[in-house]
Specification:
This protein has 19 helices and no strands. It is mostly helical.
Length: about 375
């Protein structure tokens, strides 16, 4: 690199850093002027503290239980059985080989990065053309933390909304995966190679044989799965405390008596922006309250953090099964993809496709929410 280019690159980085720093300062100055500096800082601490006690530990309990359940399903071959059932759907729906079904199940039971672990496995990757393998980033992300999201929605008393939302997420995953494949082939047609390999009769997700008895296998699997659930629960703490606190402070307004520095106070910037799109939000998603836009926005960075918003929405009485269907679809489909897509494609050595993957998944998640809303409208008409 020449000194001229090096100096220009450093100048650009300095400008970016300056713009970022100025933006952060302006946001906090604005919040401080509206709320009072002392109240703003107290609200940050109080909101984070309440989210930790009231939401994070509750979500962690669900991740531990779902982790144990998922590990038991793998240990006793249920995952393998479901994978075989789903294989015939992979080609017509996703233009992927049947082996991809395993990726959707594992990310559904755990989180987005599980698909990358599989795609780096040579035995698994040999059944894919190159463009199909790269599109697994979008395919797997659409199911990330799916079991946790659905169980959380059901635990809040919204079973029908959660299940309809799952169907919406599947629709979004199809759109995102197919769109990503189209983007890749348009710019990199060489990735569509003619190498094909006959798929094996079985892709095992557990060991070929077990020497331990059934009870010991069951006990070990639930304990190991529970430990993995604890790790997932711990990993969502920063997202919930940082992202949710920030989003809440830009979603909710002052209480009746004015700002006091309590939890869940703020300046409703996002709500005011969404209010200008009220008709579109109602028609597309069935949202009647502008505050609800905070969930999909938060899901872009971390779906675990987005789940932290729901108890407050329930307390305000602005949530119903239709909203939960949209939340489930967009939460599952997006599931924090902005914070994982870049890393996932970097691992696959395709950084140049990051922007295309993000665009395809943004469209897929958006349409997942629209589909979930209208599917729930149809569900109510029928039932």
């Amino acid at each position: 690199m020449t000194p001229h280019k090096s100096g220009r690159s450093a100048t650009v980085e300095h400008i970016k850093a300056g713009v970022f720093l100025l933006s952060i300062i302006l946001i906090f100055v604005y919040l401080g002027c509206k709320m009072g500096a002392g109240n703003m800082l107290n609200t940050v601490m109080q909101t984070s503290y309440h989210l930790l006690l009231e939401t994070v530990f509750y979500i962690m309990a669900i991740t531990v239980l779902s982790g144990a359940l998922g590990n038991v399903l793998v240990e006793f071959g249920v995952v393998r059985m479901v994978e075989r059932m789903l294989r015939p759907l992979m080609k017509p729906l996703y233009n992927l080989p049947g082996a991809a079904a395993l990726g959707s199940i594992l990310t559904f039971l755990s989180d987005n990065p599980a698909i990358i672990t599989l795609s780096k496995d040579k035995h698994f990757a040999q059944y894919f053309k190159k463009y199909q393998l790269v599109s697994l980033t979008n395919f797997g992300t659409a199911f990330g933390m799916g079991l946790i999201v659905i169980l959380f929605m059901i635990s809040q008393g919204f079973m029908s909304g959660g299940l309809v939302g799952f169907i919406g997420a599947v629709i979004g995953s199809i759109i995102s995966t197919r769109l990503m494949q189209r983007f890749i082939l348009k710019d990199y047609p060489q990735m569509d190679n003619d190498i094909t390999v006959e798929e094996p009769e079985n892709i095992s997700t557990d060991e070929a044989c077990h020497q331990d008895g059934v009870f010991l296998r069951f006990l070990n699997s639930i304990l190991d799965g529970g430990k993995s659930g604890v790790e997932i629960g711990m990993s969502i703490i920063p997202g919930v405390l940082i992202i949710s606190t920030f989003v809440m402070m830009m979603t909710f307004g002052a209480p009746e008596g004015g700002y006091s520095g309590g939890a869940y106070e703020g300046v409703p910037i996002l709500a005011q922006l969404a209010e200008n799109l009220g008709f579109a939000m109602h028609w597309l998603f069935g949202f009647d309250s502008p505050e609800l836009i905070a969930f999909p926005i938060t899901s872009l960075g971390a779906v675990g953090a987005a789940l932290g918003l729901i108890p407050k929405f329930i307390e305000q009485g602005i949530i119903n099964n239709n909203v939960i269907a949209v939340f489930t679809a967009m939460g599952m489909c997006w599931s924090g993809f902005l914070s994982t897509h870049a890393a996932m494609l970097d691992i696959l050595n395709h950084r140049e496709l990051i922007s295309k993957a993000i665009l395809a998944h943004t469209i897929g998640g958006f349409l997942a929410g629209v589909a979930a809303h209208w599917l729930y409208v149809l569900f109510e008409l029928i039932f």
